Amino acid sequence: MDIRIYFVLVALCAALVKAQDPEIVDEIWPEVQQVGRTGRINCTVTNKQTSVVMWEHVDTGEQISRDADIEMQLNPMIGGLRKYEVQKRVSGDRETFMLIIRRLVETDAGTYKCTIRITAVAYDQWPTKLGKITVQVPPTIRPGETTAVLQIDQGQNSSLICAASGIPAPNITWTKSDGGFLPVGVAQYRSHILPMTNVTVADMGVYRCVADNNIKPPAEHLAQVLIFHAPATRVVQNSVGQAQNRRFDGKLECIVKGHPEPTVTFERLINQGRAPINDDDKYDINKQTTDNQNLKAGEQWYTLKVKNVQANDFTDYYCIATNVNGRHESTITLFETMECQGPNCPSLPSARAPLLQLSALAFIPTILLLLRHIVLAR
Asked: Are 165 and 140 in contact (CB under 8 A)?
């Protein structure tokens, strides 16, 4: 036999044998699922014969299965089904081994390898293909790396940090809780770091960072910014009226702002001088803790109640705020009125009712006179 024909026949036999070797015929498509759901990836082989198809988690090095049998020691029941399962489907000479992972957690993500173990073939010659499972995770804020409270002097520079995790990585957006502009000059700012440059008292307030990666729910965090500054005071009404000697009270209101939080006191004008006011039977000093929706960031609402207003109570009162950075005051005048003022005044009978009764009585003589004329005319 011609030596050339011999080699051709050997090559044809080798090719025929090669064509009969087990092979992974399709790509393993990546799987993307949210945490808690079920992931599935497929490995399709031909000419499997007596070889074994194995699944392995490359990231952890754990071998999961041999053909349809699960090799992992820890395979808990979840809702009546095992966490790991391999389902086998046969179509002609094609066999598909579907790896199913239920109740996905973040550690289930990664690269998975499908391998055909062939007897009498070297390990590095075994057919393999890789597939990937991505586990989408809702955002979470990392508290230890995120700003909770920032205290800073006016004119200084700093920043707010919002550290968040999630898969995919979340977008982080900063806004101010009162809807105002951020120190960077816009209402919204997208970054995990919000620059605070040359801060002023107007920058004081509560800032909100929202981390969102389209996997619900988004994560939210509030950071408080406190600017050291001297107190400022303003009054709700600079003059308040009330009637005297009728057990009516006068309510004087003052709004205070400053950081550190100021100490608030009240004084009254008396004999061309000032006298301090104490919280006693005559006066009630109260810091309002509810219904503060009309206050700006850092403001506190104080009330001075003058009980049972008398003639000598009509004078000027001073709301004084003091902290380590300074002092400020506002003046409120309490003046006399003829009637009770305020929402707690007693209801009085209408003064118009007696007048209507008198008006009706005044017409009686006229009616009688008309009736007399009618009778005489008959």
From this structure: yes
Six-digit token pair at 70? 């699960």
Using an 8 Å Cβ cutoff, are 155 and 199 in contact?
yes
The CATH number given to whatever domain includes residue 156 is 2.60.40.10
Structure tokens at 359: 């008006």
Please say whether the beta carbons of 167 and 66 come within 8 A: no
C-alpha closest to that of 149 among 327, 14, 298: 298
Q: What's the pLDDT band for 289 if we cut at 50, 70, 90?
A: confident
pLDDT at 359 > cutoff 70: no
Coil, helix or strand at residue 112: strand
**Per-residue pLDDT for 353 more than 60?**
no
Q: Which residues contact 102 (CB under 8 A, 6 or more apart)?
A: 38, 78, 79, 81, 82, 83, 84, 85
Q: Which helix or strand (DSSP H or E) is residue 81 part of?
A: strand 81-82
**Could you count the other beta carbons within 10 Å of the beta carbon of residue 81?**
12
Residue 4, domain member (yes or no): no
Is residue 368 a part of any domain in this protein?
no
113 confidence band (pLDDT: 50, 70, 90): very high
Give the residue carrying structure tokens 């100490």: 263
Contacting residues for 331 by C-beta, under 8 A, at least 6 apart: 235, 238, 316, 317, 318, 319
Residue 173 lies in a domain: yes
Per the structure, the complete domain to which residue 84 belongs is given by 20-135
Q: Which of 219, 244, 100, 122 minimizes the C-alpha distance to 169?
A: 219
* Residue 361 located in a structural domain: no
Residues 80, 112 within the same domain:
yes
Indicate whether 31 and 124 sit together in one domain.
Answer: yes
Predicted structure pTM score: 0.74
367, containing H or E segment:
helix 364-377
Least confident segment among 53-62, 242-251, 328-337, 342-351: 342-351
Q: Predicted confidence band at 294 (pLDDT cuts at 50, 70, 90)?
A: confident
Residue owning tokens 């003022």: 341
Give the integer Cα–Cα distance in Å for 116 and 2: 39
Asked if residues 84 and 41 have their Cβ atoms less than 8 Å apart, the reply is no
Tell me the average pLDDT across 17-22.
67
- DSSP 8-state symbol, 308: S
